[in-house]
Amino acid sequence: MVPGTAPAVAAPAAGRAPITLAEFGSFHVGGRDFVVSGQPTREVLFSPGGQPARVDPNGTYLVGGMYAGYMIPAPQRGRFPLLMWHGGGLTGVTWETTPDGREGWQHFFLRRGWPVYVSDAVERGRSGWTMIPEATGGQPIFLTEDNPYERFRIGDGPGSRARGTTLPGNQFPADGDSYRNFMRQNVPRFTTTDELTLEAYGALLDRVGPSVVMVHSQGGFFGWRAAQERPDKVRALVLVEPAAVGDLAKVAALKDVPMLVLYGDYIDGDARWPAIRASGMRFAEAVRAAGGSVDVVNLPERGIRGNSHMMMMDRNSDTVAGLVQEWLAGKGLWA
Amino acid sequence: MVPGTAPAVAAPAAGRAPITLAEFGSFHVGGRDFVVSGQPTREVLFSPGGQPARVDPNGTYLVGGMYAGYMIPAPQRGRFPLLMWHGGGLTGVTWETTPDGREGWQHFFLRRGWPVYVSDAVERGRSGWTMIPEATGGQPIFLTEDNPYERFRIGDGPGSRARGTTLPGNQFPADGDSYRNFMRQNVPRFTTTDELTLEAYGALLDRVGPSVVMVHSQGGFFGWRAAQERPDKVRALVLVEPAAVGDLAKVAALKDVPMLVLYGDYIDGDARWPAIRASGMRFAEAVRAAGGSVDVVNLPERGIRGNSHMMMMDRNSDTVAGLVQEWLAGKGLWA
Lengths: 335, 335
Prior knowledge:
Number of domains of chain A: 1
Distance between the termini of chain A: 32 Å
Radius of gyration of chain A: 21 Å
Low-confidence stretches of chain A: 1-14
CATH class of chain A: Alpha Beta
Number of strands of chain A: 10
Strand content of chain A: 15-25%
Strand order of the largest sheet of chain A: 1-4-6-5-7-8-9-10
Oligomer: homodimer
CATH topology of chain A: Rossmann fold
CATH superfamily of chain A: Alpha/Beta hydrolase fold, catalytic domain
Shape of chain A: globular
Mean pLDDT of chain A: 92
Order of helices and strands of chain A: HEEEEEHHEHHHHHEHEEHEH
CATH architecture of chain A: 3-Layer(aba) Sandwich
Largest interface: A-B, 111 and 110 residues
């Protein structure tokens, strides 16, 4: 049953038990003031038939704030909050649902008693963005419907979406309707806001306190860097296909932060992922050499096949989440 | 206690009972394809230290999709889902929390058994935006920190935020930290996407089915228009300081949709709100003349004073919500 359809309003999703929350809500953290001056004022009609208002663009703007929504289950079994940090061009929705309407990893871990915090990175989703180029520089990037289909190891090469073909045995829900749902989740990608974003994740860790941090893709950069800056606030780091690494000069800071790195299928045959994974492996080796602990799982080696770059949305997403849950429990982070 | 702080993770907010959800999740609806052609390709380094990727901007983009998150409580007492549509320059966060960290209207109505759907309008929040001017036209507007303080009837005129002064008895949490939290919720405001947005709200009503629709400010335009286009899908309309009206030529379509319109304090002394309210009153009169039912509440006339344009965030937000709940129950929409 697809959540949100009329029937779903009347009854819980088939086979799913209700969830009791001790608390839920959202908040924003971080951000800086940015001053604009010397610009002309203009009159703006905010709503048709409404009253025009004078808008003076000069003044102080708050840029770089970050949104986080949280759900605290009862009873609670995770020993620390679980923070979920999405990848580039996406928002926290990555963890909330799947393109074919199944429950997402947010549900999976909440149902196992983890307090779950799902945030939107700076300038994406409910964090807002600035539209002041001087504040963050650069041009956001917006993807065509074909781009992720080919780049996220779903389709079998150029033109695959038009053909409607996927890599053999691919687990991503790639039917037309589901893939369209995934594209609706895509938002413009900022490539010049890393510093602001890292600052905001730091503010999130300071506010929530010691946490388990789970990151995806671009989030790998932020997860590793944030843990290097605040090793006392990161009790474990789960990295789902990290697209970038942390600071090689500060690997020693990670020696007491247990890490799990996950990679999906089809990497050897991909144009970019062999190099991205090799870079991640070099970083992991450096962390180990500094006395740290990094467990690396290539899903196919565990007999889990067909996973795209979006494994938290793949049809076997619960299987992959189960492997993460097992690892966290093994580290004594779940009671 | 401020949600999200470390203590809040361990225990429910003081004096608040846990909430049981039969189901929760999110989805996107709507949107159109938009084709871009004749643009040069470029190489993009998505993450520092990552692998550059070629990005071809030509192709088909999905624009105008809309995000909605839902929570279905158990037991359920609302006879229909309650859809919450935010105002301009903001997102669904409007309903989720208050700037001083109290529970928002989402909590208030969920705790009374309403299935609550909180959406982000097209091109705002998790709905994403296009960055293709040809697709939607116009320039988004971003507000200085002073602008809403003066325009939303919080401060007592120009320079009030710098002075730290408010209208007498103002209920908005205007202390420095709280107001900063509110500014973090602000996102760029689009003034040229009304058609796309109305289309997406229609898609939301078609997906969820007959609902009670609650709108704020700019949402007044969308709420009235959507109800005129789909009177069978809107069982009641609650309008919180609507900034614009519906289609005067189609008021007859609203004759079977009970409506409640709420206005806060300080309107008579404001530069724009007397005209905005007068226009709303003319529209309400036209709906009544066509056989419809519109109840109008000016909060001060009920002895509820000090409310800003953001009454769902004001310190007496529960009092105002209680008045709405009473009205809905009175219409037989709550059992």
